């Protein structure tokens, strides 16, 4: 009957639904996120999503071209305006990621803390290796490797102190597999993987997690090489939710690599063959290796493993310490 109805309970429910219309939604209220290169492309969508979910966001962007030329405030300002117009909290920062401490300063000055760092800023200087100059190499490494390092280095002491941090670094499939014309970029992107994995180890005790993503997205960076249907199918909106998940307090995943794009997400790991241990009490000659090459490179003999740490990796090397040939 009406008299038995728990009106107060129902009102409570209605109120909480109004405040959070999507129960179970991963919220970021009270959290501060810094997204580098957030004036365009994938980074812009990260910033919009994190702000929509309640985070205060530092929208960093130098505002240059996709080859790293020039700079302008408009790129970051536009995204900040978009976030504010939707009722979110954001401030702009226009420094290069190479001045990482300035980006983190902006977060601390505006919002008093830094919880999430998404290292996303990036440029390309594609050229065949024969034609690549030192400048092409250095510029790409400065933005991706040194930039990611400098931003993270500045955020790290805050994260250690508050015993909380979420770091997402941006690699690329070409950093895992290589690509014609991208010796500089692919090497820089591979560095992201090892950097994240080491931070994952050093951050574990302090509830700092670090992961790497290899995104695929239709942006100005890829629009020049993709037909329009493909740009549409690869909307950054399909990448951003993974970054939000990896940036959330409920996420415990760390030291992992994810390939993501077009709404498809998968984790990547190393695989190693069972290997061949040669006796160490007699000389190891190149021809010994040649004669066992098929075994050394065989992933399908049931002995392949997936090492997940340097210790894990070393165990097989160490196991060969006692491999002595006692045969006649
Ligand atoms: P984008 O060019 O659309 O956006 C990158 C943004 O970074 C730009 O707004 C640019 O101004 C900014 N930026 C460049 N140098 C900067 C610096 N020194 N300091 C601050 N900001 C700087 O590119 P995108 O496609 O959105 O790429 C985002 C990230 O994802 C990059 O790291 C890129 O290498 C990586 N990635 C993209 C794809 C893809 O398919 N789009 C694939 C693999 C990896």
TrEMBL record:
Stretches assigned to coiled coil: none
Compartment list: Peroxisome
Domain of life of the source: Eukaryota
Start and end residues of each Ketoreductase domain: 31-220
Oxidoreductase is among the record's keywords: yes
Keywords: Fatty acid metabolism, Lipid metabolism, Lyase, NADP, Oxidoreductase, Peroxisome
Family as reported in the entry's similarity comment: Belongs to the short-chain dehydrogenases/reductases (SDR) family.
Protein name: Ketoreductase domain-containing protein
Full-sequence range covered: 287 to 614 of 1054
